[in-house]
Amino acid sequence: MKNITLMFGFTLAAVSAQAATITSGDLQLETRDAITFTEDAHDIINVGGIDATGGVFGQLSALKETTFAVTFLGKEATRTNFFVSNGTSVAGSANNVATVGQTFFFDIPEGVIDFGFRGPEITALNTNINNQRIAYITNDGTYIDANTNNPYSFLIGFNDNDQSDGDYDDYVVGVSAVPVPAALPLMASALGIFGISRRRNKAKAA
Ligand SMILES: [Ca+2]
Ligand SMILES: [Ca+2]
Questions:
Q1: Measured in angstroms, how far is the CA atom of residue 161 from the centroid of ligand 2?
Q2: What residues have a C-beta under 5 A from ligand 1, the ion?
Q3: Most buried among 10, 22, 111, 202, using CB within 10 Å?
Q4: DSSP 3-state assignment of 79?
Q5: How does pLDDT run across 6-34, given as a tens digit for each residue?
Q6: Are 89 and 82 contacting, i.e. CB atoms less than 8 angstroms apart?
């Protein structure tokens, strides 16, 4: 158990020291400072029985136009917080609380992704690279989307303005870019060719 904690901490420290970019699928995280979660535990992201101990501040971009899949993993806060996409609060139910495991899809252009989180007093956006309310956590493969079986590229936690804790679990999501299956464009072009030859045959017959 202790070894897992140490390994997790070392990974994050290494990320911070390099101030690097981490690429996962068609998503890329530009890392800033490391953040160690403080006071109350991170109650949502749990690795091997140990709550997540830290993450990094940063900014998430799409390497190309893609579909951004955002799965709600949970929230510890008693407040109503939202995932925000392009300035719009995304709500999953009449109570404005998404169901755990529910996935939202957004078609996004290449570049910095316009998303964030909103609580009663504060909005934190990925477009502001200096915001310190969003913690990005790389996925070691532990967290897998129950619907697609694909591991999330990144786990992301929001720290709202309730008390002064730094647990970053007041709204937690798993995100990834949905790859377009390579077979689809091929199939589409094959159908297109088929369509043309059919029309030609029809023209001959007429
Ligand atoms: Ca907590
Ligand atoms: Ca908090």
A1: 7
A2: 40, 43, 76, 167, 169
A3: 22
A4: coil
A5: 444 444 444 445 579 999 999 999 999 99
A6: yes
